Structures
1.
Amino acid sequence: MAVLKAASTTAAPATTKLGPAACEKDAEKLAFIEEMTVNVDEVQERVLAEILTQNAETEYLRRYELRGATDRSTFKSKIPMVTYDDLQPEIQRIANGDRSAILSGHPISEFLTSSGTSAGERKLMPTIQAELDRRQLLYSLLMPVMNQYVPGLDKGKALYFLFVKSESRTPGGLPARPVLTSYYKSDHFRSRPFDPYNVYTSPTASILCVDAFQSMYTQMLCGLIDRLAVLRVGAVFASGLLRAIRFLQLHWRDLAADIFAGVLTPKVTDPGIREVVAELLRPDPSIAEFIEAECAGGDWAGIVKRIWPNTKYLDVIVTGAMAQYIPTLEYYGGGLPMTCTMYASSECYFGLNLRPMCKPSEVSYTIMPMMGYFEFLPHEDGFAVAGGAPPQLVDLADVEVGKHYELVVTTYAGLCRYRVGDILQVTGFHNAAPEFRFVRRKNVLLSIESDKTDEAELQSAVERAAALLRPWRTTVVEYTSQADTKVIPGHYVIYWELLVKEGEGGQWPPAETLQACCLEMEEAMNTVYRQSRVADGSIGPLEIRVVGGGTFEELMDYALSRGASINQYKVPRCVTFPPIIDLLDSRVVEAHFSQSCPNWAPINNKLIN
Ligand code: AMP
C-alpha cells in the first residue's frame, strides 16, 4: 500500500488528509488531488491564462478589448458577469452553423442540452472536444477516493442504471444532447480499458439503447443474473434509482420468467442488446425462484439489500433537489449508506466529494481547480446581497467558511463569468481548496427529477388552466403546490381554492373540466417537465387538489401563529413543511389528475432542427 505524499512543488505538508491508496494507480490519482487542492490559487491562475490564451482571438473576448491579456485583474475589470439569456445571440449563431471563433478558439464539437431551461426550452451549452478529457479526468478520481473507504470493490461489480436520451441536431448540424448521453456515446466510455474497480453489470449496448423500456429491462435483468457479484447499486440521481426499483416492482414476473427459461422476452427487440444478453442469460431456476419469493409477497422494505446482499452502498446523488428521496431510499435500501460522489453540470464538471461515505446531510464537494476558472458571487444566508455597487466576485481560494455564494464559471469552451445558478455554502477546506455544501438551485420551486419549475412558470400554468374555469364563472382565489414523491414516479400537486360566483350564475366546475385544467397546466410546463412525463415516464400525472373555502386563510393564521409578520405574509407558492401539507390535505374536497400526457416532441427548440 502506498502512503500518499503531496506532489506539490510548494512547501505543502508532506502528509495528506486523504487516506492510504488501494493500489499504485490510485496513489497517483490521490497525489493529483493533493497537488490540485494544495495549489488551488496557482492552478486557477494557470487555468484562466490558458482559457484566455486559447480564446484570445474570439469575437467575444475581442469585444471586451482584452487584447491578449491573460491576468486576473484585467479579466475581472473588463469581462462582465452574464446569464444564459445574455449569450443567446451568440449561441443562436453557433447553432445556425456560424463556425467562426465566436466564444471559443477551438471548434464547438456539440451542444449539451441542460436540464435548466430558458423560455421553456433546454439551455444549449456549447462544448469542445477537449472538455471530454477533462470530464474523464474528474471521473477517474472518483474510485481512488472511494477505494480508501470501501475495500475490495475490485472483487465484484457495480449495478448502475445509466441511460442515454434522444438527441437532435442544430440547423448548423451540431449534435445537441445531454452531457451524459454525450459521455456514454464517446470512446472514453465505450472503449474504456478494463478496470477491475469499474466493472458494470449493465452491458454497454443496454446503456446506449434510447428505448427506455428495453434499456431498463435488460440492465435490471443483467443485475439480477449477477446479483451476488454486485457490490454497489446506483444511478446518477436518487430519482433514477427509485425508478429502477419501481420498474422491478412492475416487471419482476417477466424478469423471473426470462431467467427461469434463459430466454430474453421478445419485447426487447434491439439486436445489439439481444446479442450480448444471449451470451449472459442461461436458464437459472434458482435465481428465478429467489426473485419470485422476494417480490411476490409485496414486502419491498430493504429490497435492494435482499436481492443484492453484497451491496456496500448506494451510489446516487441525494443532495439538492434529490434530498426529498432520502427517506424512500432508506426504506428500499434497508439503511444502506448513500454516497454522493460528484458535482457537475452541462456547463462544466465542478468537483467531487472527498468523504463519500459521510451522511447525506454532511456532503460537501471540493471544486477541482483544473476544471475551469471559478468565481463566487456573495449571497447572505442564501439570499442575494442587495446594494448599489456591482458585486465583487470572490476567487475560489478566497471564499470564507460559512458564507453562501452563487457559482460563476469561466470554461475552456468559452463561457465567461457565467452564472450557473447554484447557491453553495463553504463548509471547510481540504488543503487550500474550499469544500461546498450544495444549498439549492436558484428559482426552483418544484422538481421531481431533472425538471426545474420556477415560480413564474407555475404562475403562468395556473393562469392558463384557470382560464378553463371561466365558463363556470369560477376563479382560482389562491394556490400553492408541492412535489409529491411519496409514490414513484413523483408528481406535481397543485392546491386550488376556488370561488364560484353564484350571483353571476356560476356553478361548481365538473370533474372533466378540472381534469382538463390538470392537463392544461402540464402543457404550460417547460420541455424538461414534458419530456419526463411523455418520453421517460419519470413524472406522474399532475394533480389538482381543490381545498375548501377559507383554507388559505387558515394557512396564513398558522404562519402568523409561528411568528410571521402580517404585513409581510405572502402565500408560499410551494409547501414542504409537513404540518402545512397536512393542513392542506385535511381540507381537500376533490382531487383530479391529468388524464393524458401533454405534448412533447424532441425537436421543438428553434435552435434545433
Ligand atoms: P444539467 O445542466 O442538466 O447538467 O444540471 C446541472 C445541475 O444539476 C447543477 O447546476 C446543479 O444544480 C445540479 N446538480 C448537479 N450535481 C449535483 C449534486 N451533486 N448535488 C446537487 N445538485 C447537483
2.
Amino acid sequence: MSSASTGAAIRISGEVAAAVAGGRPVVALESTIFTHGLPRPRNLEVALEAEERLRGQGVVPATIGVFAGAPTVGLSPKQITSLANDGAVKKLSLRDLPLAAALQLYGGTTVAATAFLAHSAGIRVFSTGGLGGVHHGAATSFDESADLTTLSRTPIVVVSAGVKSVLDVAATLERFETLNIPVVGYRTRKYPGFYVTDSGFEIEYAVNSADEMAAICRARDDLHIESAILLANPIAEDKQFPPAELDDILARAWAQAEKDGINGKSTTPFLLDFIRRASNGRSLNVNVDVYRSNVSLGGEVAIALTC
Ligand code: PSU
Ligand code: MN
C-alpha cells in the first residue's frame, strides 16, 4: 500500500538550523505561554523580550509554534506577533500536531508539543515558565498534563520554576518518579512552586552551576536514557507572590472552576486567568519575572553544553 506524503514536515528556520548544525547554543521557547497563558498586550512583549534576552547572551532563540499548519521551530518575530494577537489561535499539545497540520491551523504549542519539536530539531535546552502536571482531583478526573508522559520520552533539559500550585504538586512529583524524569533544583533542594519560592516539597538533588547541569545532561545522553531532565529554578523570595494570599486565591479558583464545569485543555488557562484577576494583575508580574529568570538560566545551560 502506498501513501502520499502529507507534507507535514517540521519547519526549522535557517538561523536555528545553522546554529544546531554548528554546535552553537540554542534555547527553545514555547508559545502557549503567550497565546493562552498571558493576557494581551503583555504576552507579545514577554515573548519578544525572551528572544532578545537570549540573543544578549549569545544564544539563538527558537520560539516554537504552529503557523498555517506547519510545526515551526524558530518562528519569526512577525509570526510570533501574529500568533500573540490572534484571539482564535488554538492551544496545541503533541496529539494535536497532525490535526493542526492537516487542517492548516494556527496554534501555541504546550510544553509537550514544544519539547517534541525542539528535540526533533536537535535542540537540547528548553525554557518555560511552569510545567503542566497532575491536577487536583485527578484520581477521578484523570486530568494529568500530557507534558508528563511526553517528557518521559524526550531527552531534553527543561528549565522551569516547578509546577504551579494550581496543580497537585505532591502527585506531580510522584509521577516524575514513575516516569523516570529527574528533578534537579538550581541552588536549592526545595521544589519551587512557580509563584512562590518553595512549594513545600523537598527534592533530592541540586546543582550550583550551569556546568554541573550540562554534565548531568551529557551523562544522560551517554546512557541513552530518553527522559527529559527538569531543572527547577525558584523565584527569588523577595519577588514571590505572598504565599498565604495565594492559598486563599487558589481555593477560590478551584471552587469557581468546578462550579463552571471547566475541564480539558481549558482548565490551566482558566486557573491562571482567575489568579491574575483575583490578584489585580500582581500574579502576572511574578509570572513574567519567573519566565525571564528561566530563559536566562536556559541560555547558560545551552552555553555550558557547547563547551
Ligand atoms: N505554565 C504557565 N503558563 C502556561 C502553561 C504552563 O506558566 O501557559 C501552559 C504550558 O504550555 C503547559 C500547558 O504545557 O499550560 C499545560 O496545559 P495542560 O494542563 O492542559 O496540559
Ligand atoms: Mn489537562
